[in-house]
Amino acid sequence: MKGNRDMKTITIKDIAKKCGVGVSTVSRAINNHPDISDETREKILQVIKENNFVPNSTARSLKCTQTETIAVLIKGIDNPFFQKMIKVFEEEIQHRKYTFLLHRVDSNQDEIEVALQLIKERKLKGIIFLGGWFSHDEKRLKQINVPFVLSTISMFEGVDKKIYSSVSVDDVKESKKAVDCLCEYGHEKIVMLAAQPWDESISGLRVQGYKKALEERQIPINENLIRYTFQEETAFTMENGYKLMKELLESDEEFTAVYAISDSMAIGASKAILESGKKIPEDYSVMGFDGLDIAYYYNPSISTIRQPVEDIAKETSKILFDLIENNADNRHKIFDGELVVRQSVVRLNK
Asked: Cα-atom radius of gyration of the chain, to the nearest Å?
């Protein structure tokens, strides 16, 4: 009789622990939910059978009424590059029966502080960090006690990759690919429109790629052609590209091509070029980065590095739910970008 009493008192948490998964995953297996693998479901049901576990209907009902929220913390909500990603995140999160919370992080806010406050207030199950400069150290990252994934964010070197997950392109490699293309078309005096000089994340890595491409060809790097942003809010926008390009055109610097770290900046720069009476690509070639739809429809259409936006968003969601529901290890996924050469780039006659 004593053994029977022990078997009756086993809880859903005990089942989860025995299977090495989260409580929500056990609940999904019990309710025949489709969002877990057949292998995991069978493993859970076998442990349930072996332990004569009978789900408590009252507890299950209570569990179903609790809100399980996934937050997407976005820095740069005005950046059109993120719009498709947000749509995919919302669909994926709601499909999994979680509540989707989109939270804007201002440029002067610390995203980890924002995350810790939301975890406390909303009892989050997981977090996706989208955009921004992510140069926090290990100690700061370890303060986040729920699963999280950095999406489209490249972490600077020196942080243990086992303590976080990430999904992105290789910003150095893809940036080098863009500049290599311009060099192969005969350009050597190439302007780079970048974000803040202290940005160690996306912009900093793309600047590295720019310099690497020139160095490999033994083309001298003219620091005056790297135009940095000094206003926190406006880095990746058309307005900023326009402003940086206008300032450059008013200077005495000579150049034949412009490479911007985002398509939005490239479009802004193109407007400044055309307003000055110059032509694209006859006077200046222009290259962007991201693969925005508007870059294709702009006249002339802008050459770019296209990021696989939907694939990045879906893989981000997959990794996060593996962390939440299956106690998976942190992992990192790097996608390749695609060089798309359009009307804005021309080969120089030598």
From this structure: 25
